[in-house]
Amino acid sequence: MGKDYTYAVARIRGRELSLFGGPVMEQLLACKTCEEALRFLADKGWGDPDKALTAENILDAETEKTWNLIGEMVKDMSVFDVFRIADDYHNLKAALKLVYVRSEIDRNRVFVTGGRIPPEIIEKAARERDFSSLPEDMEKAAQEAQDTLLHTGDGQLCDIILDRASLEAVYRAGMDSSEEVLKRYAQLTVAAADIRIAVRCGKVGKSLDFIERALAPCPGIDMEALAHGALGGTESVAACLEGTEYAQAAEALRKSPAAFEKWCDDLIIEEIRPQKYNPFTLGPLAAYILARRNEIKCVRMILTGRQNELPDNVIRERLREMYV
């Protein structure tokens, strides 16, 4: 296995050279329209030449390329479940709602690529109300969420059941890994999600019971204090983080929601950079996956900004720190 990783890391080193750095992102940002930006990306080799040159097609293609590359080098893809679980749960939420409203909407508009399970299998399970074909971490949550949706019609309650289950599954997958970078990623992902949930619940006046049900346990944060803090709004949530390892998140929260989201992503990029110097482990491969996800997210922000005619400074302040 060590030899396999050594070969894989060597291949990834070459691929890292094609990752977008700050200067390339500035070139993309200099494109005045979304169409011009898409052509720029196509010239860089992004997208699928057999599909229409649209933002969603080009971003989906790059996600698929990333996982196809990793799949060529690593036989047991379950080691990267910590990155893929969230996409499965996204597709599960979409499938349950499609079945509930009996929608015939184009599935490509609601399902995402990159998960462990093909979306059509998830949709089939939802239609047949039989989730035994899904991984254990999804089966119970899927049944509970569907029963809740069918009996109450409350899509939001369905969402919090699945969102919490997703976070718990991500955390378990990270803690079960022997790779410190995956453990750390899982912890940061759950912590950031809990903070985000607390802020949003506070803004819309959710009850303490709702908030406690939505939050997933996470070391380093007092969940009881965070839930009560949410009742007091963003400032109270920020105060709960003072004195913890997420104190800088409090500062970002006070600035703006966008600043907090940027802080979360930048922290992950900062923490994965040292993996460049661990050539005999899965660390560099995990770092590459995260770098690609970050790159695709930044490209999405620019394309969305151009589609909505946002000023350059508004887009630029939301762009994440790049891996290279």
What would your notes on this structure say?
With 324 residues, this protein is an all-alpha fold. Helix content is 70%, strand content 0%. It contains 16 helices and no strands. The longest helix has 25 residues. The radius of gyration is 20 Å and the shape is globular. The mean pLDDT is 91.
Task: Provide a short characterization of the protein structure.
The chain is an all-alpha fold and 324 residues long. It contains 16 helices and no strands.
Bulk shape: globular
Structural class, judged by helices and strands?
Answer: mainly alpha
End-to-end separation in angstroms reads 27 Å
Report the uncertain regions: none
Gyration radius, rounded: 20 Å
List the helices and strands in order. Answer: HHHHHHHHHHHHHHHH
The portion of residues assigned to helices is 55-70%
Estimated share of beta-strand residues: under 5%
Largest sheet: none
* SS summary, helix count: 16
Whole-number mean pLDDT: 91
Number of E-state strands:
0
Task: Describe the structure using short key phrases.
mainly alpha, 324 residues, single chain, globular
List the helices and strands and how they pair.
Blueprint: H1 2-16, H2 22-29, H3 34-43, H4 55-73, H5 81-101, H6 119-128, H7 136-152, H8 155-176, H9 180-204, H10 208-214, H11 223-231, H12 234-241, H13 247-255, H14 257-272, H15 283-307, H16 312-316
Helix pairs in contact: 4-15, 5-6, 5-7, 5-8, 7-8, 8-9, 9-11, 9-14, 11-12, 12-13, 13-14, 14-15
